[in-house]
Amino acid sequence: MVRAVPTSEKLFIGGDLNNHVGLSNAGYEVAHGGFGYGSRNKEGEEVLDFAIAYNLMVANTFFRKVTFCSGHHASQIDFILTRREDKRTCLDCKVIPGECVVSQHKLMVADFHFRLRTRRDKQVKAVRTKWWKLKEAASEDFKRRVITEGSWEEGEDANNTWKKMATCIRKVAAEVLGVTKASKGATKETWWWNEDVQKALKEKKERYERMFYDRSTDNIERYKVAKKFAK
Questions:
Q1: Per the domain annotation, does 188 fall within a domain?
Q2: Measured distance CA(221)–CA(56) in Å, rounded
Q3: Structural domain boundaries enclosing 152
Q4: 13 SS3 class
Q5: Alpha carbon distance 17, 43 (integer Å)
Q6: Do the Cβ atoms of 133 and 178 come closer than 8 Å?
Q7: What global pTM score does this model have?
């Protein structure tokens, strides 16, 4: 049974094929490493044709090993097929001589070294209250509503009073001042940058571009000055 495999997954095919791919890799260089054993038979050709058709390689033919050896008899009838793109990650393909799986078959092991790429989950930006708008008319409206809607009763538990007041302040602030929109990915808080800051950053960027294309002493010094000023 053939199953669709996602491109992100690594596909390995292992099997006891009882076929002989042979010592020579003539005509099958992309799938055969040239370290086989004996002569190739018809079934072995079918294995190699299958490997080429599906962009695979017979991993153990790239290493000078035999899959079974007893007395004067040796054979290579067990194979590990893997994608050709993983050729560099295949470090070794060996047979464990002391382990006998079934009659005339030894345990075959392939060593691969894959570089795993860690996937960073995008940070979710939380909704924030626009506290920077707390001035002039908005400030008076906020103050009036907090005094009117807040819990100012005496004699209650301090923790309960604190929770009620905090909830009231957040609610009034969100309605009076508004909130930001939640979005994925972390962004710089640049809302407080005035014209002087923006001008300094623009100058720094221009100096960097000039230095990138022409690393003369003058351009480097000019960039350092602009960078220090912007910081």
A1: no
A2: 55
A3: 131-177
A4: strand
A5: 9
A6: yes
A7: 0.40
* Token pair recorded at residue 96: 């464990």
Measured on CA atoms in the order 42, 44, 48, 53, is the torsion positive or negative?
positive
Name the region of 22 (left: φ>0; alpha: ψ -120 to 50; beta: rest): left
Q: Which two tokens stand for residue 133?
A: 């708008």
Check whether residue 173 and residue 201 sit in a common domain. Answer: no
Could you tell me the CA-to-CA distances from 193 to 180, 188, 199, 200, 230 in Å, in that order?
A: 17, 11, 10, 11, 12
The per-residue pLDDT for range 81-92, each reduced to its tens digit, is: 888 888 888 888
List CB contacts of 82: < 8 A, sequence separation 6 or more.
10, 11, 12, 13, 56, 57, 59, 90, 110, 112
What's the number of domains the chain is made of?
Answer: 3
pLDDT over 60 (residue 20): yes
